Structures are given as C-alpha cells and as structure tokens.
C-alpha cells in the first residue's frame, strides 16, 4: 500500500499497488473459486471492492459501462475512474477524494458500508466523459460488507435507473406542466363566449394565445431534450442580434406568474452586434436560467439579464440575489438533480449545458458567493 500526504475532501486517499491487487484476486479465487459465477448471476453491474475502494473483480455487465475496457485497465481502479467520471481526476488520490464526491451517492454508500458494515441503498448521479462528450448516468447502488478468507470487501451492485428517471420527467411535464397549461386554455375558452361583447374579450384572447404558445413550447422543449440526448437534434443556425435575444427572453417572463412581485432588469447592449447561432435553443437556454433565478428569489428581490462582448466571444449573464448552498452547487448540472420538492424536475440547468456545449459550441458556468451573489454564464463564439 502506498500513501503520501495526499489531500482528500471526503474518503481515505490510500490505495494499493497493481501487484497487491493481483495477490488479492488470487487469494479470493483460491478461497472462493465460484466468485466470478456469483458476480455474473447479478442482473446488473456487480463489483467487489477492497477496503481502499479499488476494483478487485467485476462481472461482464460492467464492461459496457466501462466503455469496453479490458480487465487489466479496470483492476485496481475505483468506480469513478473506471466510468471516467468528470471529477475522478480532480484530486491526486482520485475517485472519492474530491469535494464533489461528498454529494455522490456511490461514494457515500461505499464509505458508510466500510465504516459501519451496514447494507446501504442509495441513488447516484454521475457525469461521465466518453470521446470528449459528457453523458449523465443515473444509478441505484447497493453496498454490502462481505468477508472472504478473513479479509473485508465491499460488494457493490449497480442498477441503471436512467429510464425510470426519464419516465418521471415525462410524467412531470405531461401530467403537471402540460396539464396545467391545457386546463388554463380550457378555462379561458369556456369564458370567452360569456364575455364576447365586453371590454375584457381582447385581453382574454391574448391570454389564450399566450397559453397556447406556452403549451407548444413545453412540448417542444421536452422533444428537443430527447433529441439532444440521443444526438439527433438538428440545429438551425442563422444571424441574430444579441439585443433581439435579450428582448425575446424578456418577453417570456416579463408578465409570467413567477415574476410577480420581483424586479426583472434586462440590460441591452448600447452597440448591438449579431451572432450566428440557433436562436430557439439559445432563448430556451437563457429562459431556463432566468426562470431558475426568478424561482430562487423572494418578493422585492432582483434578477438581471445582460450581455458582455469582446472580439471573440459573447457572454450572456443571468444574475440574481442570493447564494446557492454548496451541496447544491456541487450537483447543479446533473440531469436528475433538483432543488424542487417534486421528483423528476432536475433538467433545467442540465439541458442548458447540453444544448449550449454540445450543439451551440459554447460553454456554461456559474459562480455563487457572497461577493458576486449568483451568476450563470452562457459564453458563445462571435463567429
């Protein structure tokens, strides 16, 4: 085993060498020759981890998630390293030691089982990178302590629940958001014949048009997210002015329910410029960030949306008063993570990052502290 004075923010940093891993594997196989057959009997991914969280054995179902890596590549690595988690190399000691690992369901489960010998079941969201493309995984993990030939190991079983999470999102969209908007349209339509000759008629017609547009946008947003995740989304790039983008984003939420009692400030460029982008995706992404900002503040608080430019880039900024808790910051772009009480709503910031970085060629980031308050950035190339 080797251990330098390596820094960790969560679990122990120590690990053993490849030779020691091989010795452990041999000892397990000699004492329990059927261990591989036992792992293969699991319906999902199954691993055996040593006390340092390193992979000692795994079943064939794990190989698909390890991107086809062979046994030599996997043995001795930790889960996040084998999956190519985007945070697995942030610390010298690897998976389980970064600040992000504090909020990882897998890391939490392994640590608790190692420390208490308890069986633990939890959900885990991991963002992995394959061929330079980030992908979100949703797992339900099961950890149990097992003893083989007097040695302590963790049996780690993983169930892929991505389909379950996507189903929850669809249920939320179609059983709540879409149903609410459709009910609003029905209510307005029922009132219209009764006020045909009144001064309110034109206002109710405008409300009907707005609600209809909102209904269509909600359905299209979910459709585009599905296409984007499957890699089949088609972009429509054209020249559009920055101020037009800001104006259209303002129109989305200026009179929205979520804006009531709050101050929304849109700052337009004094010297407007044009950029080449997919305006629909950019407006939807900025709109998501703006809605999140408005939902995050209380009455009489402020939200600002503005843009800054230089020779190479255009930066869109959504600013709001308040600071995001650290535990939320560490998970902000994960697909199924949400601060809302209703399950399945954690797709706002995730979809922004997906649209902007994979399809618009830009970058998404944020900062949230007492000095800057909360700011989200969408940065796009000018050309």
Automatic annotation (TrEMBL):
GO terms for biological process: osmosensory signaling via phosphorelay pathway. It is an enzyme of class 2 (transferase). The keyword Acetylation does not apply. It comes from the Bacteria. It catalyses: ATP + protein L-histidine = ADP + protein N-phospho-L-histidine. The keyword Metal-binding does not apply. Its EC number is 2.7.13.3. Residues 173-383 form the Histidine kinase domain. Keywords: Kinase, Transferase. One of its GO terms (molecular function) is phosphorelay response regulator activity. InterPro entries: BphY/WalK/GraS-like, HATPase_C_sf, HATPase_dom, His_kinase_dom. This is histidine kinase. It comes from Ignavibacterium album.
């Amino acid at each position: 085993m080797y251990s330098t004075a390596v820094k960790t923010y969560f679990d122990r940093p120590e690990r053993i060498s490849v030779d020691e891993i091989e010795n452990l594997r041999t000892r397990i196989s000699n004492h329990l020759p059927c261990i591989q057959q036992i792992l293969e009997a699991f319906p999902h991914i199954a691993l055996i981890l040593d006390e340092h969280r390193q992979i000692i054995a795994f079943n064939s179902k794990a190989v698909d998630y390890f991107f086809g890596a062979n046994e030599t590549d996997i043995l001795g690595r930790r889960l996040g390293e084998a999956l190519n988690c985007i945070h697995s190399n942030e610390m010298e000691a690897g998976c389980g030691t970064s600040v992000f690992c504090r909020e990882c369901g897998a890391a939490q489960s392994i640590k608790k089982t190692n420390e208490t010998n308890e069986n633990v079941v939890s959900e885990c969201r991991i963002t992995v990178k394959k061929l330079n493309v980030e992908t979100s995984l949703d797992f339900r993990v099961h950890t149990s302590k097992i003893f083989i030939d007097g040695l302590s190991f963790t049996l780690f079983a993983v169930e892929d629940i991505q389909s379950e999470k996507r189903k929850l999102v669809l249920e939320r969209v179609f059983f709540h958001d879409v149903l609410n908007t459709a009910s609003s349209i029905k209510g307005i339509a029922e009132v219209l014949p009764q006020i045909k000759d009144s001064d309110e008629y034109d206002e109710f017609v405008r409300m009907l048009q707005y609600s209809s547009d909102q209904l269509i946008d909600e359905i299209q947003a979910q459709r585009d997210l599905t296409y984007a995740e499957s890699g089949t989304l088609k972009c429509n790039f054209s020249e559009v002015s920055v101020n037009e983008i800001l104006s259209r984003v303002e129109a989305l939420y200026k009179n929205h329910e979520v804006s009531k009692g709050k101050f929304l400030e849109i700052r337009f460029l004094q010297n407007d410029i044009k950029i080449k982008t997919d305006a629909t995706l950019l407006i939807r992404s900025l709109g998501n960030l703006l809605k999140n900002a408005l939902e995050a503040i209380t009455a009489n608080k402020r939200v600002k949306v503005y843009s800054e430019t230089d020779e190479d880039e255009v930066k869109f900024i959504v600013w709001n008063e308040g600071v995001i808790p650290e535990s939320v910051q560490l998970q902000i772009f994960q697909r199924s993570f949400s601060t809302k009480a209703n399950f399945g709503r954690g797709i706002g910031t995730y979809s922004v990052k997906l649209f902007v970085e994979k399809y618009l060629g830009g970058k998404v980031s944020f900062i949230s502290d007492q000095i800057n308050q909360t700011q989200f950035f969408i940065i796009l190339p000018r050309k």
